[in-house]
């Protein structure tokens, strides 16, 4: 998807002096995914009746669960895997059943 770019918001959260690694790579853009899913899945659900309210609630609960499963993934860089520099990014789990 062309309009879905990397999420760089994590890179500004923790000063590099506090950690022994650097933010880098391409974090999964969960904000874009939430926006897209609201436009796609929530379309037509206005919350006018109990069924629509339940669907909207369940959709939001699903998005909250996906968000809670994001994990930090890191890769070491250096001579022979010495991990001179460690680069980390946020990643969603695989969607395999």
UniProtKB/TrEMBL annotation:
Q: What is the lineage of its organism?
A: Eukaryota, Metazoa, Ecdysozoa, Arthropoda, Hexapoda
Q: Which coarse location class applies to the principal site listed for this UniProt protein? A: secreted
Q: Which family does it belong to?
A: Belongs to the Wnt family.
Reported function: Ligand for members of the frizzled family of seven transmembrane receptors.
The record's Gene Ontology biological-process terms are: canonical Wnt signaling pathway; cell fate commitment; neuron differentiation
Q: Where found in the cell?
A: Secreted, Extracellular space, Extracellular matrix
- What GO cellular component term, any one, is given? extracellular space
Give the signal peptide range. Answer: none
Q: Which InterPro entries match?
A: Wnt (IPR005817), Wnt_CS (IPR018161)
Species whose genome carries this gene? Linepithema iniquum
The gene it comes from is: wnt-1
Which GO molecular function annotation, any one, does this entry have?
A: cytokine activity
The UniProt keywords, alphabetically, are: Developmental protein, Disulfide bond, Extracellular matrix, Lipoprotein, Secreted, Wnt signaling pathway
Record's protein name: Protein Wnt
């Amino acid at each position: 998807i062309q309009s879905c770019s990397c999420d760089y918001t994590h890179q500004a959260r923790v000063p590099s002096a506090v950690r022994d690694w650097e933010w880098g790579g391409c974090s999964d853009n969960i904000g874009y995914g939430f926006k897209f899913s609201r436009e796609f899945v929530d379309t037509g659900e206005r919350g006018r009746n109990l069924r629509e309210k339940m669907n909207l609630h369940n959709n939001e609960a699903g998005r909250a669960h996906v968000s809670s499963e994001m994990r930090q993934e890191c890769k070491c860089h250096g001579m022979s895997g010495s991990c001179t520099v460690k680069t980390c990014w946020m990643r969603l789990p695989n969607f395999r059943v």
